[in-house]
Write a structure and sequence with these properties.
single chain, alpha/beta, Rossmann fold, Transcription Regulator spoIIAA, 3 domains, 6-stranded mixed β-sheet, 4-stranded mixed β-sheet, binds iron/sulfur cluster
Length: about 500
């Protein structure tokens, strides 16, 4: 625990327990302290009277417990390349990387969106995975491990595999993804001066998004949309404001919350009454940009915001199920400007299924009009390239090849530069490897280990694929047929494969 940390809950620090675990964050301390899911998981387990738990990060120097005391070593796994830091942390404490090479303890496990979507490329390294929202089963998992710590590892794993939502690779079974009700509000339980978002009280307003864009894992992995009740939100905002004046509202699409406007009004009224509040929100949906919302954001110190439009043409926006009209986009910019926002960043994707040069030209034309009609207002663009994600209607769609995506990327950069628009485009090569990992199967386990051993840079991915003769293009580029058995089919996520097939056909037939 660092000196600058402030706990917002009562800790039971006089635990008399013979069971200790580490909750690990695969990144540096400052990021860990802005990671809501990680901190909340820590808080829930920390509240158990007879479990000692410690947080560790990549840059942790000293630990309270020795690795020899640790019975459970849990990782949050939120980004495809987190495996690199996870391996580095296991090695730092001399824990063998492969589960089969580990003695009984510590049992190493992971949870988070990457392994919930598709744990297969990493199954050799973890004793078990938590698939979906783990809030409710932590107690069950940890208690089972504690009560049976004297039993052989195999027996403990077999028992764990009996818990709903726990995937033990040694005992494969069909897993129903865990879906947490969001009756209580999840918030930053520990504030820190050293957090990436310094002293910021983050509040999860909603989980999931009803919009169901065809590529969107954040939506499809979290259906149905769950919203924290308004009164609960207000109570939590007030709790946060007792300790800090920095509030961040979080959700895949916070404006999907039916009372988002009421929450903004609540904060706006406080600011008008003299309270100094800084508030930020994750990206907004264009049709949620209203005078009230932007007025609140600017009053709370936000200068810029991001609008995810995904594609420049209306046709392509329909194909991905983001049914936004150009009129709505222009209206949103007008509202943002009128309410004194300084600028907007438009976020889009390239290489979406069915995209052609006509769609790219539409993006440039949209940018040109936006720039022309909004002189003095800061307009910028950001793009990433389409990566097919499990459990989405576009999971069967292969990604466009790297050469052609790089040409598209150069085209957009050049054309937007001519208009004087700052443009940031993610690395097409990294996105390729992301696609490989997203749709990969168990044959990638030795590959990811080799990538790590080779240093984890782009070249390491190539070398590792060559060494094991893996056709990575197949995972990234191939259009899969609907009857193909997918590596993640054993994970059942609502609304299910039948629906995804229907939605895939519906979206891709839009002209
Ligand atoms: S609106 Fe955003 S969060 Fe919602 S489904 Fe579309 S991309 Fe995902």
């Amino acid at each position: 625990m660092k000196k600058t940390e402030k706990y917002l809950y009562n800790r039971n620090i006089d635990k008399n327990s013979n069971f200790a675990m580490w909750m690990a964050f695969p990144g540096v301390y400052s990021f860990s302290m802005s990671s809501l899911g990680y901190l909340w998981m820590f808080k829930t387990i920390d509240s158990f009277a007879d479990i000692n738990i410690e947080r560790i990060c990549l840059d942790t120097e000293k630990t309270v417990y020795n690795i020899s005391d640790i019975k459970l070593f849990g990782f949050s796994f939120s980004f495809d390349t987190d495996f690199l830091t996870i391996f580095a942390m296991l090695e730092k404490y001399n824990v063998p990387l492969k589960a089969k090479d580990r003695e009984k303890f510590p049992l190493v496990f992971a949870g988070g969106p990457v392994v919930t979507a598709n744990p297969e490329p990493y199954k050799d390294f973890f004793d078990f995975f938590i698939i979906g929202d783990g809030e409710d089963i932590n107690l069950q998992v940890v208690t089972l491990c504690k009560e049976n710590q004297d039993k052989p590892k195999k027996e403990i794993l077999q028992m764990l595999s009996g818990i709903e939502g726990v995937y033990v690779p040694e005992y494969p079974k069909t897993i129903n993804k865990l879906t947490q009700k969001l009756n209580e509000c999840i918030y930053t339980p520990i504030l820190s001066e050293e957090a990436f978002f310094k002293n910021t009280f983050i509040i999860e307003m909603a989980r999931g998004c009803f919009n169901r864009c065809g590529f969107c894992l954040a939506s499809y992995l979290n259906l149905p949309l769950r919203c924290v009740p308004y009164n609960e939100l207000i109570k939590t905002i007030d709790l946060g404001l007792e300790h800090t004046n920095k509030i961040a509202l979080l959700g895949a699409q916070i404006s999907a919350h039916p009372q988002f406007h009421d929450v903004c009004k609540y904060i706006y009224d406080k600011i008008k009454n003299g309270e100094k509040i800084e508030m930020s929100v994750s990206s907004l949906r264009v049709d949620a940009v209203t005078d009230d919302v932007i007025k609140t954001l600017t009053a709370a110190g936000q200068k810029n915001s991001t609008l995810a439009i995904e594609a420049g043409s209306e046709r392509l926006r329909k194909v991905i199920n983001k049914n936004l009209t150009e009129e709505q986009i222009f209206k949103a910019v007008k509202i943002a400007k009128n309410n004194r926002l300084k600028g907007l960043k438009f976020y889009g994707m390239i290489g979406l299924p069915t995209e052609s040069q006509v769609d790219l030209d539409a993006t440039v034309e949209l940018a040109r009009k936006l720039k022309k009609e909004n002189k003095g207002f800061d307009i910028s663009f950001g793009f990433s390239s389409f990566v097919p994600k499990p459990h989405t209607p576009f999971q069967w769609c292969g990604r466009e090849n790297t050469k052609s995506l790089e040409e598209k990327s150069n085209f957009l950069k050049k054309e937007l530069h001519k208009l004087g628009i700052t443009t940031h485009i993610s690395s097409i090569k990294w996105d390729y490897w992301q696609a490989v990992l997203s749709r990969g199967d168990a044959s990638l386990n030795d590959f990811v280990l080799e990538v790590y051993k080779q240093g984890g840079k782009l070249g390491a991915f190539k070398t590792a694929a060559k060494k094991f003769n893996i056709n990575t293009d197949y995972f990234a580029y191939e259009n899969y047929s609907f009857d193909k058995q997918l590596p993640w089919d054993f994970i059942r996520v609502q609304p299910g494969k039948e629906f995804l097939i229907k939605e895939n056909k519906r979206l891709l037939s839009i002209t």
